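Section 5.1 Outputs to date
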Amino acid sequence: MKLSPELRKTLIYYFLYCCSFIFIHISLVSVFTFFHFLLDHQMNTIENWLNRNSWEIILISKGLSFFLVTKIFQLNSYQEIHPLKKLFEKLTFPSKKIFGMSFFILGMIYIYISQFGGGRLSGQFNEGVFYSSFIGSVLYYLLDFLVIVILTQYYTLKDDDYNKVAYTASFLFILTSKIVLPYMSKYYSFILIHFLTLFFLNRKGSLIDCFIYSIFVIGVLSSIYGLDLVWDNSYAIFYISKSISIIGLVGIWSLALGYYRFSRLK
């Protein structure tokens, strides 16, 4: 299959971002572990510290990877570019329908928790951990997605190429997540749906709607509903005792995205 030059460059840069994220994350974990050994800490102490600070380590790794790839992209360009400045110039007011879509998803997931397995946890809530989970979950998706958005600002893609980027990037995103977080296999369906939804919103709506979705859906489902990629429901307010079927998830998101696509609200 022959790829257009724009599509090929977009995928190469995103692949570089994924590789740098994995390398930086492994390096940071190794460095922190080394210093703990120098302090004669026991293995269970080291594991507890790494687990408690997992989101901070992941965000540092993604942030450094984001900075590295955007700088390489700037240096390889034949003209002076300011990707972040151009990115923020695209931001407008969010649409009304993104709020309706977000609350519909949250309401349907809450109904599932209440009716088909799960409930409320008591004595688990921790404010500091909540912020780490919320911010970490939001940026975990957004930073990857923004790399794609920045690239597609300068590499104009046809609709077919845009779809190829969405599917290939989603595969790389899941693969990278599996390497960094090997125990989160129960969330593959959520990872895929969230990431593809961001592509859909950016294509059919606006970039600011992607931010709203990330905050109101991804952040809330992770930190409050117990769908955290790192901590599961250890510190959440609610928990899900059974895995949600992929058919149920596809049904919920299909209705939500259909509403967003065809709603007359602006």
